[in-house]
Amino acid sequence: MISNAETPVITLIGPPNSGKTTIFNILSGKNFKTVNYPGSTVEYYTSRILAKYNIHAELLDSPGLISLIPDSLDEQVTINSLYHHPRLGTPQLLIATVDASQLSRHLLLPVQLLKSGFNVIIALTMNDLLQKRNIYVSIEKLKEELGCSIIQINGRTKEGIGRLIKEMNSNLEDIRNNGRQIPVPYEQIVQNESLVDTFLEIEKITNKVLEFKTEVEEINLKNANEQLKVHPSILQNNGFTTDEVTLKLDRVLLNKYWGFLIFILVMGLTFTSIFWLAQPVMDLVDEMFSELNNIVLTNFQSGWFTNLVAEGIISGVGSVLVFVPQIIILFVILGLLEDSGYLARGAMLIDKPLSKIGLNGRSFVPMLSGFACAIPAMLAARTIPNRKERLLTIFIIPLMSCSARLPVFALLIAYLVPRDKLWLGGFLLAGIYLFGVTISIIIASILNRFRQKLFKAEDTSTFILELPTYRVPKLSSVLNHTYNSSKEYLLRAGPVILVFSILLWFLVYFPNTNPQIEIEGLTQVEISQIEKSERLEHSYASSIGKFIQPVMSPLGLDWRVGVSLISAFAAREVFVSSLALTFKVTVEDEEANKNTLLNSLKNATIGNTNEKLFTTATTLGLIVFFIFALQCISTIAVSRKETGGWRIPVIQVFVFTTLAYVMALITVNGLKFLGIN
Amino acid sequence: MKTAAELNFGERGTIAEIDCTHPSSRRILEFGFTPGQVIELFSKATFNDPLAILIRGSLIAIRKSEADCIKLK
User: Fold this and answer.
1) Which of A152, A460, A507, A641 could form a disulfide with A541 if both were Cys (CB 3.0 to 4.6 A apart)?
2) DSSP per-residue string spanning A85-129
3) Is A349 within 8 Å of A259 (Cβ atoms)?
4) Residue A378 sits in the same domain as residue A499
5) Do A634 and A510 share a structural domain?
């Protein structure tokens, strides 16, 4: 018996697509935070239950689970934490979600939980789906069969939440007074029971609790005939028919011929839309920050502090914030695709091609998340049961063009593409993504040949995945998720960017703060510009940059880009803010009031010559460099953790950085050779 | 003995047994593929693999090699 002096813990648990998240959102409002399972990186949500429901308890969400016998790493972690959470202990109460329209499959988990000795309330969802087919679940009988409380919930109308709360309260009250049982790990008791027996047991239950009702009031011949036709097949299929709309849609979307074509189209559309949907918002943010910069520079006394605020902080942070709209749009589109149920189809359609190069259909979602950020993507790879496939997926994830690279690509593309041809930018960005994917396929297939040596793991490859019923995505939950992901991204990247902006500002501003120059016969504007370039010429940054000049020259770039590339190793998006810092101070603006980074880049020249620094060739070379280079300390750290050693991350850094330099070299000089400059 | 991997489009079959020597057999059972269940081949992906199979009212994507250990009556 355990006594409960502290806050009770309630865990939500259920198979994927059983309406678990909907219930979590209703109970928690928007106050949840993301936490990792202690000692691991599997993420889950936790929250206090909303005050209006009047339950003092900690609510814990958990990843979707089919059965209490784990099959992959993240399932193992989830199940272990269920029995004994290192920080929160064993939950006092479990709320198990069960999709009523899939009763016979979804009852497996609650039956296992109950056998294991957990205190369970079942939340029965999607009852309306079943009722449409005139099938009802007898709550009383189900309660009797299972011996736990059953509450019907309607996720859309929130009907039943009140009853669930009441039941939770009286349940907690009960264990407070009478104590509770400690659950025994299911794997210990399951030995003398087979899955087939459990399913037979469940089938007996479902046969008892499902009732077929017909509306007696409106009998007409047609209706009666239809029901006669429907009934036998319902019984044959264990009481369940599949959602008709889903089947109709899947006849097209999973069509042997059309399916793959549509899939490629959907993915292409996703990535082009990121670029053109975000453009207007990005322009707005960009102008706002240059305006702010100007206000500070013109209204305050000139000196190092004003300069720090204007050039170091405002420009540095602004040049990265400008890309938040794109990141948000990426998260929204991925969320909509996931919520609609299409992503699972994508995984199925791509399984065969991926298995050819040593990956798995389940690699698809981690790879797709890689376009947002490599870190959650590597964590998502935990759903791949096969170790070799999981390691290979983690290996190539850095090649998926993550949102931190978006700022860099967006800047360089905007530089290449004329303003009246924005659609071209979209195509170019799609091209970059496609190129990244192609390269990752090539690298994966090469590595696949050496897999025995590299990954030292061999177990059978497997792919079984439920294709959920299609539904209209719930915009509110997608937006909610986007808000949280974007916030997390900003909190993670923001401080790094700020610190590096200030550090870089320091390197370009010092030690020569007050250069002595001839000021006779010069205007005020000219003086400040000559001062700026004098200062930079003798700055710390310049010394560092000139040291690496020999490496940069073959790429047709100079030390200023070199400094930015080095600082980008902290995090890629720092590249943009450091470009802003070094170039805005070295370049004279033709239009003083349009002090944007793009203009500065256009006017940049190599050394004291008139040769433009950013030509088509060098800009494309930079893009290629960023496609390959693994410039992200956090990614390297997560890769080490997820692969269980330094081996893979070290190979990753070496391979990707070498490739980046060599490929950029080939691009720049190849283009120059072809006469494109 | 015919297996689920050999079904034609739209063809139905009743599961007789699951080959439990296959490493994925437990997961296959957990997805509800138990003896006596009626399954239907709904579609195949572009390269004929994986298959989408209807069982217990839901659609499950499964590789041909794994569907092969679902023996039908």
Assistant:
1) A507
2) BTTTBS-SEEEEEEEGGGHHHHTHHHHHHHHTT--EEEEEE-HHH
3) yes
4) no
5) yes
The answer on A655 and A594 residing in a single domain is: yes
Q: Answer whether residue A253 is part of any domain.
A: no
The span from the CA of B18 to the CA of B31, in Å, is: 12
Q: Which residues of A touch B29 (CB under 8 A)?
A: 195-196, 199
Measure CB to CB from residue B66 to each of A105, A237, A464 and give the nearest one.
A464
Do A507 and A582 fall within a single domain? yes
- Closest A-chain CA to B54: A242
* Amino acid letter, residue A630: L
Check the CA dihedral A45-A47-A49-A55 and report its sign. Answer: positive
Provide the residue range defining the domain that includes A421.
258-476
Report the chain A residue with the minimal C-alpha distance to residue B67: A464
Put simply, the answer to whether A101 touches B57 (Cβ < 8 Å) is yes
Please answer yes or no on whether A259 and B46 come within 8 Å at the CB atom: yes
Burial (CB count within 10 angstroms: exposed 0-12, middle 13-18, buried 19+), residue A327? buried
Interface test mutation site (partner B, options A462, A469, A471, max chain B beta carbons within 10 A): A462
Q: Is A463 on the interface with B (CB under 8 A)?
A: yes
A130 shares its domain with A263 = no
Q: Final residue of a domain: which of A476, A504, A527?
A: A476
**Which domain-ending residue is among A476, A510, A535?**
A476
Give the mean pLDDT per block of 10 residues along chain A (677 residues).
63 86 80 55 69 82 85 81 80 91 89 90 87 83 91 86 90 84 78 76 85 55 46 45 82 88 86 73 80 82 78 73 75 84 91 90 86 78 83 92 81 81 79 88 88 65 88 82 76 74 77 66 66 72 81 83 78 76 58 57 71 85 92 81 86 93 93 81
Q: Is A409 within 8 Å of A626 (Cβ atoms)?
A: yes
Q: Measured between CB atoms, does A247 come within 8 Å of chain B? A: yes
Residue A3, in any domain of the structure? no
CB-CB under 8 Å, B52 with A199: no
pLDDT for residue A287 = 81
pLDDT at A236: 44
Which letter does DSSP use for residue A605 in this model? B
Confirm whether the ipTM is greater than 0.90.
yes
Residue A563 domain-assigned (yes or no):
yes
Same domain? For A110 and A156 the reply is yes
Question: Do B66 and A196 lie within an 8 Å CB cutoff?
Answer: no
Contact B57 A67 (CB under 8 A): no
The pLDDT, as a whole number, for residue A2 is: 42
pLDDT tens string B7-58: 998 899 999 988 888 888 888 988 989 888 899 999 998 888 899 999 988 8
Helices A324-340/A405-416 angle, 10° precision: 110
Pair A275, A297 in one domain: yes
- Check residue A174 and give its pLDDT: 87
Tokens of A87: 């920080």
A462 and B27 Cβ atoms separated by less than 8 Å: yes
Which positions in chain B touch A343 (Cβ < 8 Å)?
none
Q: Which of B39, B51, B56, B70 to mutate to test the interface with A (most CBs of A within 10 A)?
A: B56
User: Which residues of B are less than 8 Å from A67 in CB distance?
Assistant: 30
Residue position matching structure tokens 């006849």 = A251
Q: Which CATH architecture has domain B4-72?
A: Roll (2.30)
CB contact under 8 A, B46 and A71: no
Nearest CA in chain B to A356: B47
As for how many domains chain A has, the answer is 3
A597 and A575 part of one domain: yes
